[in-house]
UniProtKB/TrEMBL annotation, chain A:
Keywords: Actin-binding, Cytoplasm, Cytoskeleton
Organism per entry: Brassica napus
Family: Belongs to the ARPC4 family.
Protein name: Actin-related protein 2/3 complex subunit 4
InterPro entries recorded: ARPC2/4, ARPC4
Location of the protein in the cell: Cytoplasm, Cytoskeleton
From TrEMBL, chain B:
Record's function text: Functions as a component of the Arp2/3 complex which is involved in regulation of actin polymerization and together with an activating nucleation-promoting factor (NPF) mediates the formation of branched actin networks. Arp2/3 complex plays a critical role in the control of cell morphogenesis via the modulation of cell polarity development. Functions as component of the Arp2/3 complex which is involved in regulation of actin polymerization and together with an activating nucleation-promoting factor (NPF) mediates the formation of branched actin networks. Arp2/3 complex plays a critical role in the control of cell morphogenesis via the modulation of cell polarity development.
Organism the protein comes from: Brassica napus
This protein's name: Actin-related protein 2/3 complex subunit 5
UniProt subcellular location: Cell projection; Cytoplasm, Cytoskeleton
InterPro entries: ARPC5, ARPC5_sf
Segments passing through the bilayer: none
Gene: BnaCnng28290D
GO molecular function: protein-macromolecule adaptor activity
Record's GO cellular component terms: Arp2/3 protein complex; cell projection; cortical cytoskeleton
Self-association and partners: Component of the Arp2/3 complex composed of ARP2, ARP3, ARPC1/p41-ARC, ARPC2/p34-ARC, ARPC3/p21-ARC, ARPC4/p20-ARC and ARPC5/p16-ARC.
SUPFAM superfamilies reported in the protein's UniProt record: Arp2/3 complex 16 kDa subunit ARPC5
């Protein structure tokens, strides 16, 4: 019970930040006609990118949120103290990846030091898509 | 033009660091008098806005961090702080959260929750979008 409190604060912080960051809109590529690219992946124009935010609970658990005008990337590093937690993490991740179609996940490979990555991209003007995504993530928080 | 700008930058950096040193000693004395709220206000006040110099930002961050860790009563602190400082405080909170140091993160998470309740999601969004005045 005492342990749960710092966890609750960490998750509340991530939830608030995500809610603010999920302010996305459809934004066709400025360079090439009729192309629609996820800016957070390609980083073509600096003015379309927002400050990335790293939320750490301690040295072993952190969450990196990178936003741009039309896409958002969340990278999670989860504490894995023993084999069992390792297995659970992998199962959790597989589950999220398989459900990814619900919110148009485009990239599922890890980024550098961040061990596991889930990319949520191009939740465009589809408000329903955004609501589904928020609700879905809330279940795990 | 760029050269002159660069020269002014360097000059300003030294001046800013000197100001931060004086601020730091003032904050130490305020903390000794058990006035952590005043200390935090002083720390947030002279935040160098458009400096690109990493040293100035780090120096100011150290000072703010010292004041932040000394705060025990978060509600009282937020009551006493003016609304215009909420955005700057939020930026420093995110900087604190990125350090990964356990006590810092614990403190920052506590303050973050309360500050979001008061200032709303707009405050967070302003931190994300402001790429010019970073801390």
């Amino acid at each position: 019970m005492f342990q749960a409190n710092p966890l609750r604060l960490y998750l509340a912080c991530i939830r608030n930040t995500l809610e603010a960051a999920m302010c996305l809109q459809n934004f066709p590529c400025q360079e090439v006609e009729r192309h629609n690219k996820p800016e957070v992946e390609l980083k073509t124009s600096p003015e379309l990118l927002l400050n990335p935010v790293l939320i750490c609970r301690n040295e072993a658990e952190k969450c990196l949120i990178e936003t741009s005008i039309n896409s958002l990337r969340i990278s999670l590093k989860v504490k894995q103290a023993d084999e069992l937690e390792n297995i659970l993490t992998k199962k959790f991740l597989r589950f999220l990846s398989m459900r990814a179609e619900a919110f148009q996940v485009l990239r599922r490979k890890p980024v550098q030091d961040i061990e596991k990555e889930i990319s949520e991209l191009k939740i465009s003007v589809n408000t329903r898509g955004r609501l589904v995504a928020t609700e879905f993530l809330k279940q795990f928080m | 033009m760029a050269g002159a700008g660069g020269f002014v930058e360097a000059d300003n950096a030294e001046a800013i660091i000197a100001r931060i040193e004086t601020k730091s000693s003032k904050i130490e004395s305020l903390l000794k008098q058990y006035k952590p709220v005043e200390a935090l206000k002083t720390a947030l006040e002279g935040s160098p806005p458009k400096t690109l110099d990493e040293r100035c930002k780090s120096a100011n961050w150290i000072v703010v961090h010292r004041a932040l860790m000394a705060i025990k009563d978060i509600e009282g602190m937020l009551n006493a702080l003016d609304v215009e400082y909420y955005d700057i405080l939020m930026k420093y909170l995110y900087r604190g959260l990125s350090t990964g140091d356990r006590p810092t993160c614990d403190q920052c998470l506590k303050i973050h929750e309360k500050l979001t309740d008061r200032a709303g999601l707009g405050c967070i969004l302003r931190c994300l979008t402001d790429t010019i005045n970073t801390v």
